[in-house]
Each structure stands twice: as C-alpha cells, then as structure tokens.
Design brief:
The strands form 4 sheets. Strands 3, 4, 5, 6, 11, 12, 13, 14 and 15 form a 9-stranded mixed β-sheet that branches. Strands 1, 2, 7, 8, 9, 10, 16 and 17 form an 8-stranded mixed β-sheet that branches. The two termini are 20 Å apart. The chain is of the alpha+beta class and 509 residues long. Helix 2 links the parallel strand 1 and strand 2. The radius of gyration is 22 Å and the shape is globular. The protein has 9 helices and 24 strands. Among the domains are: 186 residues, FAD/NAD(P)-binding domain (3-Layer(bba) Sandwich), CATH 3.50.50; 79 residues, 3-layer Sandwich (Rieske Iron-sulfur Protein), CATH 2.102.10.10.
C-alpha cells in the first residue's frame, strides 16, 4: 500500500520500510515464508539460523503490513486478563500463556543483543489502571490469577504518571522496542545466513503436499514447508475466519517533554481499552512521542474516524501533558474467540503448511511466539505451547461461546447488505473528490471512488473472499470487508487478506 493511500505510523516516520527485489520465475527452498511482518521474519530468522534454506515473500515491504502499524507493546500481561483466560483455558493453560508471552518479550531482547540490532529495546514495567466502571476488587482478582499463572505482579497505590490514576497493577519485565528497526535487523541476519527476501510478490495460492508451494503471477516457490504469516491467513477460506473477528484500532502520537512521563506500558481496564507508551524521536533532545491507542470498532462497521481521534485526544489531554498531536493512524487487530492466537499446522489439513494469526491485540509477542513454535514444528521438535495455540482447537466455555455466537451472528447480518435496498448515496454525483461510497446499480453493488482530480473509479463492491459487501474507510482510503477483515485499495488491489484476489473490475474500468 502506498503511503499516500493510508495513515502513517510513528515507526514509518522514524525509519523506512525495507524493500527487496521481487522474485521472478521459480525458486526452491526448504521453507517458504509468506509474510514479512514480525511473525514471518522471526520464523525465517530462526529457521535460517538452523541451516534451513529460507525464502520470504511479501506484497509490501518488510514490516509494510500490520507490524508497521502496531504500537509495539511487548507484554506478558494480557489485555483479556488472566482471570478470564483461566476460565477459558484452565490454570495450566493460563500458565502456558504467561510463559510463552514472557519468553517472547525476552527473546526479542536476546536476539537484538546477540545480533547487535539497535532497535531501542528495553525492559519496562507495565501497569493496569482502573476504568470508570471497575472497582479495586478487579485488581485483586487479576492479581491472584496473574500470580497463579507465574507473573511477577503487585498492586500499587498509584502509577508513575502525571494524573491521579488511583491504584493499579504493576507487571515487571515487560518491554518496548522499535519494530521496523528490529525487522530490518532480522532481514540482514536472514540474508547473512543464506535466506532470500522478496517484496512486491502478491501470493495468490498456497498448496500443501510432500512438496508445498506458494505462487502468484509470474513466480513460484517450491518448498518442504510453507508458513502463512499474513496477519489473516490467505490459504483458508472459512475455518479460521469463523473463530476470529477483525477490529480497527486508532492511535495518536503527541509530543511530550522528556521526563514528563516515565517509560512504561500503561493500559486501562475498559472493554475497548486505552493503551499508552513512549517512543523516541530521533535527533530530538527535548521531547518524546507519547503513543496512545484505543477507540476500537469492528472493521467495516464505522466511518467516523475523526470522532474517534477527537475522543482519543481528549482522553489523553485530560491525563498527560501533551503538546501538539502530530500523528494519527489506525491498524487492524484480529480477535480470536477464546482470546489466544492460532499458531501451528494448517487447520484445513494441507500437509506441510503452517499458519500464524489471531494477534488479539498482542501482535508483537504472539508473532514472536509464532516464530519459536512454528520453527520447532518444522524441525520436528516438541514444544509445550503446541496444543494451546493449535489452530484446530475447539475451546468450549461460556466466555468463548458467547464471543463465537455474537461475532458470527454479526457476520450473517452483513450479508443482508447484498439485498438491492440502495447504497450509501443515491448517485455518483454525490461522491466528493478523495472519497468513496457504495452505489446500488440495478442488482449490483458498486464500490465507487472519486480521486482528487475528480475521476470516478468503479469496481464491484463484493469482497472476493466470501462475498460480503465492502464499506468505505475514509481515513485509510480503502474498501474494508465487515465480515472477515479483507481490505482493498481504491483501485481494488488487495491490502489485507483473507481475500487473495482484487475487487472485480467493472466493464470500462
């Protein structure tokens, strides 16, 4: 996706995405990794270190997808809370969740140190503070569950922040880093160890078997294994997508004086929680960037981005000494119904195919867990986390079944948009330059975008994944699917899976 077509994160303003020449023709490898975000690059790095011949493919640059849009919290504290996770996965499952996420926090630091990757990595404390609807009993309940899981956590009377936070929970040994600098460092190491990285390659098909393959227009990689690490898996039509739901989340970056806010990770306990951290501004000796996220909604369900940014800024100004807000961007989060990522063998049964998805708002640790777990599976090594993260699992609990039912009923409701009941506007003349809308034309739904020069661009509004009607995203200038989170550029090109194919062109386009 071109930067002019979407909002830009703090990481992209302080470090470029790494680009590599596209692959043409046929290549062979021990392992082909589809996706050059943190999950794919960590997997490729670990397998290359083991002597495997690795090829990485991505349509974007390295970190050009959601890994470049993250706020990069490294946490073993869980945004779905250990007392909830314990109900869903049991006490032993909660212990494995803590162990794996803490291992991921530490592994990033270990790799950065061993490889000399300058990525601003450091350990910091993480803090929960109560939302307006929670009482201190909530903190005690979570404290006990987090300690049963193995966490080093304590109740504190006040957070080290410049507002009256009230009591909170302090988790030790959390972390922060610059994800694009880290990914660039992994890329250098992968190449050093004989791996190949190719960007500008849009994979259309993944095939399992004794020899697996990933292919697109004009290229193919044949390998002993294929790892699909594309945020939402492009090789699976339905299985995983009924068990997770896509959400948009919003972020602002605002300058604060250095020292005004201690480095740490800060989260409130609201359902759609706020999350806060600091990031360095290169060359600025007086200010840092306060990075604040929240105001989530299901992908394709809202188009009120300015309202959400205004609420984020108001929430932040009421608590932190920010100066001007200089950055605004959004990202996509995939929420699994039982709150834990799907990492492991392809649930559809494709031989020698592995997937990593379901970041659940903790994409940087889940991605690192994916690299560790999948590399062990490819190498035939046992891993204690395999069953917990198995994409084929069926976790039955009151909490997970409620999430499953609510999200899938919502998907079913979206298909009513296929009925010929009209569009967002009555005619294309109502579409202003730089905006888009869905039109009803006979029995057809049309995604119409008018560019800054006034030219109208039209394609089918039917998502090429499972046929939902896409919706206009005014912030990112994209067409977003409200069912499973596929996203398309104004010209119909795929920005995010699971859809592998672009929106269909209309006659004359």
């Amino acid at each position: 996706m071109k930067s002019s077509e979407r909002s830009v994160s703090v990481w992209e303003t302080t470090h470029p995405q790494a680009e590599f020449p596209p692959l043409r023709g046929v290549a062979e490898a021990d392992v082909c990794v589809v996706g050059a975000g943190l999950a794919g690059m960590t997997t490729a790095y670990l397998l290359a270190r083991e002597g495997k011949k690795v090829v990485v493919l991505d349509d974007n640059g390295v970190g050009g997808g959601e890994s470049g849009q993250t706020t990069a919290h490294l946490a073993s504290a869980q945004d779905d809370f250990y007392h909830v996770l314990e109900k869903v996965h049991g006490e032993e499952g909660a212990k494995l969740i803590y162990q794996s996420h803490q291992a991921a926090v530490d592994r990033i630091g270990e790799i950065a140190t061993a490889e000399g990757i300058e990525c601003d990595y450091q350990h910091v404390d993480g803090y929960y503070f109560l939302g307006p609807d929670e009482t201190p009993d909530f903190l005690q309940t979570e404290l006990e569950a987090a300690r049963r899981a193995g966490g080093t956590v304590e109740i504190v009377e006040k957070l080290p922040v410049p507002f009256d936070s009230g009591p909170g929970l302090r988790f030790s040994r959390q972390g922060e880093f610059h994800p694009l600098k880290y990914l660039e460092g992994l890329a250098r190491c992968i190449q050093r160890d004989g791996g190949r990285i190719h960007t500008g390659n849009h994979v259309l098909e993944v095939e399992g078997g004794s020899t697996a393959a990933a292919r697109g227009d004009g290229f193919e990689v044949r390998a002993g294994a294929v790892v699909v690490a594309t945020n939402s898996p492009i090789n699976d039509r339905l299985t995983i997508h009924t068990k997770q739901a896509p959400y948009r989340t919003y972020v602002i970056g605002a300058r604060v004086p250095i020292g005004a806010v201690p480095h740490g990770l800060y989260w409130d306990t609201q359902e759609h929680y706020h999350y806060v951290r600091l990031a360095r501004i290169p060359g600025d000796l007086t200010h840092e960037m306060l990075v604040v996220g929240g105001e989530d909604h299901k992908t394709g369900h809202e188009n009120d981005m300015q309202v959400r940014f205004d609420r984020l800024e108001a929430w932040t100004r009421a608590r932190f000494p920010i100066e001007q807000v200089t950055l605004r961007w959004s990202g996509q989060v995939l929420e699994p119904m039982d709150f834990v990522a799907f990492i492991g063998r392809d649930p559809g049964g494709q031989e020698n195919v592995y997937i990593a998805t379901g970041d659940s708002g903790q994409g940087m640790t889940h991605s690192t867990i994916a690299g560790i777990l999948i590399s062990d599976l490819v190498l035939g090594r046992p891993n204690p986390w395999e069953k917990l993260y198995d994409p084929k699992r069926k976790t039955i609990s009151k909490d997970s079944m409620k999430e499953f039912t609510v999200e899938n009923v919502d998907v079913a409701v979206q298909y009513t948009d296929l009925l010929p009941l009209g569009g967002d506007v009555k005619s294309a003349e109502e579409i202003a330059p730089g905006t888009g809308a869905v039109l009803q034309r006979g029995l057809h739904k049309v995604a119409a975008y008018r560019d800054e020069n006034g030219k109208l661009h039209e394609q089918s509004a039917i998502c090429t994944h499972l046929g939902c009607v896409v919706q206009w995203n005014g912030l990112e200038r994209s067409w977003d699917c409200p069912c499973h989170g596929s996203r398309f550029a104004t010209d119909g090109a795929v920005l995010n899976g699971p859809a592998p194919y672009p929106l269909k062109k209309l006659e004359g386009e």
